[in-house]
């Protein structure tokens, strides 16, 4: 074979491989899947319903003192806490895949993180549109500081372990921290 033929075939094969990789990586686009958005919404809607029904969980003056009392109160409060929804999509995604390979964990965690990030951005837009200048300026500072903190915090697994297990740890970190920030930001919409 001639050198030009090898180059053409290599270029064609490289382009085909690149196309397959780009088309098979929907989670890396940063856009959440419809399923991940729906799962989180269903869970947070259930939390809202639970918050409106039944007796409120005991507060610090009413709950039984000690570890048992705290865990019992925490379990009761979990039904009413949006933080209990963190992992709702990624767990279902991992179970559907039927394995816990690093690729599956990263993909499922990243999909759910993208859904929480979308909620965060929507809540930020709505909250900032309702705030006075000083409050808005401070919210921007908070969000910038939070982004830096999230990125530094979630890079720690790789810096400590420097191996393949760091990938899922970093992905879970971003999911968990982003979800908690979204929940916090959505709290400003209740004001």
Quick tags:
191 residues; mainly alpha
With helices defined by DSSP (H or I, 4 residues minimum), what is the helix count? Answer: 7
Helical percentage = over 70%
Main sheet record = none
- Whole-number average pLDDT? 84
For the termini, the CA-CA separation is: 72 Å
Q: What is the chains' assembly state?
A: single chain
Integer tally of domains: 1
Return the string of H and E elements.
Answer: HHHHHHH
Strand element count: 0
Task: Bin the strand percentage.
Answer: under 5%
Envelope shape: globular
Radius of gyration: 22 Å
Unreliable segments (pLDDT under 50, ≥5 consecutive)? 5-28
Helix- and strand-based class? mainly alpha
Give a description of the structure:
Helix 4 packs antiparallel against helix 5 (102-129), helix 5 (102-129) packs parallel to helix 7 (166-187) and helix 6 (133-161) packs antiparallel against helix 7. This protein is 74% helix and 0% strand. The longest helix has 29 residues, at 133-161. The protein has one domain (31-190). The chain is mostly helical.
